[in-house]
Design a protein that fits this description.
By secondary structure, the protein is mostly helical. It is built from 9 helices and 2 strands; from the N terminus they run H-H-H-H-H-H-H-E-E-H-H. The protein has helices spanning 15-44, 52-61, 69-89, 92-112, 118-131, 137-157, 159-175, 212-215, 224-234, and strands spanning 177-178, 181-182. The chain has a two-stranded antiparallel sheet with strand order 1-2. Strand 1 and strand 2 form a beta hairpin. Helix 1 runs parallel beside helix 6, helix 3 packs antiparallel against helix 4 (92-112) and helix 3 crosses helix 5. The two termini are 35 Å apart.
Length: 235
């Protein structure tokens, strides 16, 4: 699972910069999944958890909006997904511009028309920007589906639905295997040595062993001297 959030640049930069980018990318991925559902749960069922000045500001922005908060967020999410798909199908020179300009224009028009609140537009925009940080397109599509499921659960059960959905997701991921390798490895099962390239990346000098689940009988990585000789032969 962690490899979906790893990009090639992580291994061509310093370990501290790569670690920071991996942590930022992982946080953005989690945010892109739970933010809409959390927003709906807090405003619908758990308003006491929001600071009073912020609650007054958000509810004041939604005055006159004809839809419930869950329907409001769902409309904006579906609209943005349509814009994203349209941007992919259009020629590359205009696709990105259509997505950005279309999102700005439709968001502002929806606020001016009183169909959605400003807070909803901010939450949906932040969710969309966070989803763009995921390097793997396959996991990004899956995250979009999970986001709508958690949104539906939060609209009916509040934070309890959100937590239930996340627990069920973890149970499902724990039951998956890819080429006989557990999907959540090295977290479950726990392999201490493999955490050197999970949430952070340690220097290459400390990464002398291959991952436990795929190493088999050849556990040690190629020594640096052998790598240098191999590169010299290629050059």
């Amino acid at each position: 699972m962690a490899f979906f959030l790893t990009s090639n640049e992580n291994y061509y930069q310093r370990y501290d910069i790569s670690s920071l980018m991996k942590i930022l990318r992982g946080g953005a991925f989690v945010l892109s999944i739970i933010l809409p559902g959390l927003y709906v749960a807090l405003l619908t069922y758990h308003q006491e958890m929001i600071p009073t000045p912020l609650l007054i500001a958000v509810t004041g922005q939604r005055e006159g909006v004809p839809f419930g908060i869950a329907i409001e967020v769902a409309i904006m999410e579906i609209t943005f997904e349509i814009l994203r798909e349209a941007g992919i199908r259009l020629p590359k020179t205009v696709g990105a511009a259509i997505s950005i300009v279309g999102g700005l224009v439709l968001g502002q028009a929806a606020v001016d028309a009183g169909l959605v609140g400003q807070g909803t537009v901010i939450v949906v925009a932040l969710t969309a920007i966070s989803s763009f940080t995921t390097p793997s397109y396959n996991i990004a599509i899956t995250a979009r589906m999970i986001r709508f499921i958690l949104l539906i659960l939060s609209s009916f059960l509040g934070a309890f639905g959100l937590i239930f959905g996340l627990i069920f997701l973890l149970i499902h991921l724990n039951s998956l295997r890819s080429f006989s390798v557990p999907y959540l490895a090295p977290i479950v099962p726990f392999h201490k040595g493999d955490w050197k390239d999970l949430f952070i990346r340690v220097p290459w000098s400390h990464m002398k062993e291959r991952p436990e689940e795929i190493s088999n009988n050849n556990k040690n990585r190629m020594e640096s001297s052998k790598v240098d000789r191999h590169l010299n032969r290629r050059n």
